[in-house]
Amino acid sequence: MTQFSDRLWSEAVQDVIQAGERMDQRGWVPATAGNLSRRLEDGRIAITRSGGHKGFLTVPDVIEIDPAGRPIDPMQKSSAETLLHTQLYAADPLIGAVLHGHSVAATVLSMALAGSSLTLAGYELLKVFEGQSTHDTVIDVPVFDNDQDIARLATVVAPRLGAMPAGYIIRGHGVYVWGRDMKMALARLEGLEFLLACELERRKL
Ligand SMILES: [Zn+2]
């Protein structure tokens, strides 16, 4: 490993650690929930190790996987939902970071919804998502039924990839959001979570 690539790795790990802290501050990674990853400029993928609290990540909690989701070090075990991260990286070479959290709003709203999408319309914050320049727009956020078989869940998600400007929701579970870098992924996650919280509040009125 060159000095250059070591620097890239360190930066990626710090991105993941800081994003975990941020998600924890917002209450989106309770207990051992959630997982975070970052694709380096050289193509390597850094992802959180299985288990552990994502608000208190340390350098060894972030491990390297190959594009198929296998840990480079066979003694390590990556997040249970690793395949949902590598699926996104494989689908779009511009994706540089993927975030998954379990918020109250995402969990409650998706359990109350019967359909396969949540429609978001009229919100100023919709502009945070790719290709949107006005609040006067409608974004459908896909909602997939939860499944402990992640490979099977990935095959259900696959057909709708490419048409998810705001990410997607797994029912009763949480959200997946991504961006070209960690900053963008975090901005989109905050945007989606804000809108989910708004939708939840509106249903209480
Ligand atoms: Zn999860």
Automatic annotation (TrEMBL):
It holds the Pfam family Aldolase_II. Its cofactor is Zn(2+). The keyword Zinc applies. SMART domains: Aldolase_II. Transmembrane segments: none annotated. It catalyses: 5-(methylsulfanyl)-D-ribulose 1-phosphate = 5-methylsulfanyl-2,3-dioxopentyl phosphate + H2O. This is Methylthioribulose-1-phosphate dehydratase. It comes from Asaia krungthepensis NRIC 0535. Residues 14-200 form the Class II aldolase/adducin N-terminal domain. Zn(2+) binds at H100, H102. InterPro entries: Aldolase_class_II_sugar_metab (IPR050197), Aldolase_II/adducin_N (IPR001303), Aldolase_II/adducin_N_sf (IPR036409), MethylthioRu-1-P_deHdtase_MtnB (IPR017714). Belongs to the aldolase class II family. MtnB subfamily. The lineage of its organism: Bacteria, Pseudomonadati, Pseudomonadota, Alphaproteobacteria, Acetobacterales. It comes from the Bacteria. The keyword Zinc applies. Its EC number is 4.2.1.109. Catalyzes the dehydration of methylthioribulose-1-phosphate (MTRu-1-P) into 2,3-diketo-5-methylthiopentyl-1-phosphate (DK-MTP-1-P).
